[in-house]
Amino acid sequence: MKERVLHIFKNAPEPLDAIVIANDVEPNIDMSFYYATGVQSGLFEQCAVVLWPDGRSELFTSFLEETSALTSGSEIRTYRKSAERDQMLKATLKGVKRVGICGSGLTYRMLQEMRKWTAAEVVDVHKAVEAARMIKDQAELESLREACRIASEVGELLPSILKKGMTEAEAAAEVNYLMQRKGASAPSFITNASFGPNSAEPHHSPGEDRLKAGDAVLFDYGALFRRYGSDVTRTFFFGKASKKQRRMYEVVLEAQLAGIDAIKAGANGKDVDDAARKIIDSSEFKGLFIHSLGHGIGLSVHDGGRMAPDLDLELRENMVLTVEPGVYVRGEGGVRIEDDVRITKGGCEVLTSAAKELRVV
Amino acid sequence: MKERVLHIFKNAPEPLDAIVIANDVEPNIDMSFYYATGVQSGLFEQCAVVLWPDGRSELFTSFLEETSALTSGSEIRTYRKSAERDQMLKATLKGVKRVGICGSGLTYRMLQEMRKWTAAEVVDVHKAVEAARMIKDQAELESLREACRIASEVGELLPSILKKGMTEAEAAAEVNYLMQRKGASAPSFITNASFGPNSAEPHHSPGEDRLKAGDAVLFDYGALFRRYGSDVTRTFFFGKASKKQRRMYEVVLEAQLAGIDAIKAGANGKDVDDAARKIIDSSEFKGLFIHSLGHGIGLSVHDGGRMAPDLDLELRENMVLTVEPGVYVRGEGGVRIEDDVRITKGGCEVLTSAAKELRVV
């Protein structure tokens, strides 16, 4: 993935002879390994990729994952034992004086392993990698579009899932099944289905609580497609909606649309957050929007970049971010509405299309 | 989780004043954080836990996950901003001269963060943590039993899933749905459904290949229950089975039973591997069992410990490991049979019960 590698070097704060990205074992995998190599399958535990300033990359893979390695844009170096990996990397990195690492994904243990490969000075360039990853290229956008299509189609079906007396865990199972039937390789994170008061907890884990009339029903879910994940939230009301619930929904939807409206290349993320937040804070729900407005998505569900108060983030073309205001009333319930958008020169393209008018199911 | 903390300190190679376990952001979470604290829900990105030699633990959590933190056995310290976290940890670690870290789960970035908390000498104790995690306590066994029950019940249903012309991805979706309906919070890893020649690739990703008569059908899957995952493989034949396929199955099953038979506390993992391997290597499938016999399971699907040639591992009571011999013929297909077992004094308890007689569906 030559362009991606060049992009990382361009972002680096100082000249480097090479960059090494190395995985530990699951779950301690550096998603940047997948970014730099473009491998479409495989796990690559304790494997490494060496990036060079001319855009070349060398992927050191164990024999077991050689087939997956062939889906990458890198030159493939296959080893059978880790001692062989160490020898090959030592030879490869000979003469390298200053080497970049990706400190947000490299474990301390793998850094010690790396010491067997090179004595070069180490520079943590995770910010350069993150900045490159934030601007999506065409292949990444294609995967994200597909991940968003799947989540959107499932979004339209959410009301049909709901049955009185079902548990949150059952509802989450239905969402995951629908996503996978529509082409997702997996959910992009653990699906959140929250009923009633549980919807007031932004990160609720679906459990055994059962659906009853008057409940707010909040689904926060996403589809993984070729390692890229979407992230969508829809909130419904089951059986009936109180005046307060309707009003919450109205305010959150207005805030979300205002946020989307404020987005464009060149805007500051904190101003977009403010455009949405001030609508909630000038309503009777003041102070109840307790998280930031959105975050980057991609290979990780929190892929770098946030639109939040007091945080400068210059929005740039082809960043992909969530826009997800919410209002949470402890003990009663919450409403959140979340879409994924691609930043464009003049505004943004909303990639997730499921209906979001207030709906009583 | 006092006993777990004491166990880690007991395993440490030298006296320590404290141990710090810190998460980065998903997926770079240290599963040992969940082990040491026992938290049942929540993600705890960039949160830390401090373990003390007397068995106490202090969990530093962001306000957003305070509710989840209350499910832990640790003392809770809540912060709102990371600067506040840094201050609290600095005060807590005052006077600590030598601090343990878990190098297999700590990122380089979080190590730099930790430098704001303490100037103490750092000792990587990930082997001590891994050794503690390998011996499961009662709460862990309870979760693993449930994860195994779910996978076993689904195992019995696998033949009923199979329909001529279905894709591997569709078959994997059915498996995941069944697991979640039976109480799994998620699959414990990406479900592998391999048809025909794809079954010869141990780590195949399910794709668009369709099921046809004569195919071997290999399912490798597991259920996650309270963060603990099972790991099971069953192989079937669709429509018909050739003489060679039947023979492969027979040999792999015999090898698996021999492996299970060789297991007991005090045995060496490499001897157990050998007991299974020599059955395959004395058959016409010599050399086609291309991976190790088994690995520990728990909070991670590769949870520490392997039964493999040339690797010493003393089996101890309440370790939980997979036993999974296989035979792989490139271009044709493979057979693998995998169960999860708990080591006992005199042998082992097989935790996964799905039928494993040769079956043509």
Q: Quick one: biggest sheet of chain A?
A: 6 strands, mixed
Structural class of chain A: alpha+beta
**What is the helix/strand order of chain A?**
HEHEEHEHEHEHHHEEEEEEHHEEEEEEE
Q: Which two protein chains have the largest interface (Cβ within 8 Å of the partner's Cβ), and how many residues from each?
A: A-B, 52 and 52 residues
Describe the SSE topology.
Two copies of one chain form a homodimer.
Chain A (H helix, E strand, L loop, with lengths): L1 H10 L6 E5 L8 H7 L10 E4 L5 E6 L3 H4 L5 E5 L2 H11 L5 E4 L6 H7 L6 E4 L1 H9 L3 H24 L6 H14 L4 E2 L4 E4 L20 E6 L1 E3 L2 E2 L2 E6 L5 H20 L6 H13 L12 E2 L10 E2 L12 E4 L2 E4 L3 E4 L2 E5 L4 E3 L11
Parallel strand pairs in A: 1-5, 3-4, 5-6
Antiparallel strand pairs in A: 1-2, 2-3, 7-10, 8-9, 9-12, 10-11, 13-14, 15-18, 16-17, 18-19
Helix pairs in contact in A: 1-6, 7-8, 9-10
Structural account:
The structure is a homodimer of 361-residue chains. The first copy, chain A, has 361 residues and is α+β, with helices and mostly antiparallel strands. Chain A folds into 2 domains: 2-133, Creatinase/prolidase N-terminal domain (Creatine Amidinohydrolase, Chain A, domain 1), CATH 3.40.350.10; 138-350, Creatine Amidinohydrolase (Alpha-Beta Complex). Helix content of chain A is 33%, strand content 21%. Chain A is built from 10 helices and 19 strands. A 6-stranded mixed beta sheet of chain A has the order 4-3-2-1-5-6, sandwiched between helices. Chain A has a 3-stranded antiparallel beta sheet with strand order 7-10-11. In chain A, strand 2 and strand 3 form a beta hairpin. In chain A, helix 1 crosses helix 6 (126-134). Chain A is elongated, with a radius of gyration of 22 Å. Chain A starts with a helix and ends in an 11-residue tail after the last strand. Chains A and B meet through helix 5, helix 8 and strand 7 of A and helix 5, helix 8 and strand 7 of B.
